[in-house]
Amino acid sequence: MSAAAGQITVPDRLTRSITAADPDGADRWLAGLPALVAGQLTRLGLTPDRVLDPGGSLSLVVYVHREDDLSPAVLKVSLRTPGTAHEPEALTTWAGRGAVLLLDAATPDPATTVLLLERLHGEIPLRSLAEPKAMLEATSLLHRLWVPALPDHPFPALTATALLARPLPAGAEALPVEAEPLLTEARETADALAASAAEEFLLHGDFHHGNVLAADRAPWLAIDPRPLVGERAYDLARLVLDRADTLVGSPGVPAAVRRRLHQLSEALDVDRERLRGWTLVRAVDLALAALTADRRSDAELYLEFAGAL
To answer: Gene3D superfamilies this protein is in (predicted)?
Structure first.
């Protein structure tokens, strides 16, 4: 192992999430990660500052300086999944307009994507603002990211078959009684919405306050897209679910949810009923993901939000 590789420590969170995402290949990918990162540092002429811990859920994130001009940057080495596979193409399409700027991209092996990115202020997410101000900034940014998909785009299409694919785990009988009917309704809603969509935009795919960071060349920029092509209501639905704990904890939850749906649909000229439907789908999907990760309290939170819809 090179000296540079010896400086690379894989965060525990990344080990757990990679193991959950790819149980068969996780050990091999994680074992080779320090040497792979060291090779990319050499290839790109980078000096590492520090590894971010916890960093990304599917990526090792290293703060670096470029050796040619000492400018700060970020090296992101990710497990390549269907959700992350087209991140370089999305960042190239946006070209820094509303999103972090891509400086270099490589695929050293079929399981890995390497990105060199401009450095943002990782310690200042949009979530650090009060909710009304954060929502205003988020909608302005999301409007910039939504660009019509070109005919020859490389991105996957939004389809119902890719959603709600996680089965309810063992012990589902301990869930709130509304879980099963909500899951059934969400699947039916996803089928109906996907079949009737009438627009094709490049979507961020995972747009929420935690995936927006303060920057120098713009107040706020988006990071970590899971790009796909589909209707805007799907993307906006993830933002509706932001700070769900605050909304669910407020008096009159159904009325509070309706107000947020109305405000966001009006702000971005998105059909309110389609936004409600996609929000239901994404809330149940997030609940299933939380159950898979043994985060039962998060699952119950998203199910309660879905029930309020």
So the answer is: Transferase(Phosphotransferase) domain 1 (1.10.510.10)
Range of the domain at 294: 125-308
What CATH number is given to the structural domain containing 273?
3.90.1200.10
Tell me: do 191 and 129 sit in the same domain: yes
Q: Which residues pair with 229 in a beta bridge?
A: 157, 202
**Same domain as 157, residue 276:** yes
Q: Show which residues are catalytic.
A: 206
Return per-residue pLDDT of the chain as tens, 309 residues.
454 665 788 999 999 989 888 889 999 999 999 999 999 999 999 999 999 998 888 999 999 999 988 899 999 999 999 889 999 999 999 999 999 999 999 999 999 999 999 999 999 999 999 999 999 999 999 999 999 999 999 999 998 776 776 655 555 445 566 678 898 899 999 999 999 999 999 999 999 999 999 999 999 999 999 999 999 999 999 999 999 988 888 788 889 999 999 999 999 999 999 999 999 999 999 998 888 777 888 988 999 999 998
What's the total number of domains in the chain? 2
DSSP the chain: --HHHHT----HHHHHHHHHH-TTTHHHHHHHHHHHHHHHHHHHTEEEEEE-SS--SSEEEEEEEETTT--EEEEEEEE--TTTTTHHHHHHHHTTSSBPPEEEEEEEETTEEEEEEE--EEEEEGGGS-HHHHHHHHHHHHHHH-EEPPTT--SPBP-GGGSS-SPPPTTGGGS-TTHHHHHHHHHHHHHHHHHH----EEE-SS-SGGGEEE-SSSSEEE-----EEE-HHHHHHHHHTTTHHHHHTSSSHHHHHHHHHHHHHHHHT--HHHHHHHHHHHHHHHHHHHHHTT-HHHHHHHHHHHHH-
Distance, in Å, from the CA atom of 85 to the CA atom of 265, rounded to the nearest integer, reads: 29
Are 134 and 269 part of one and the same domain? yes
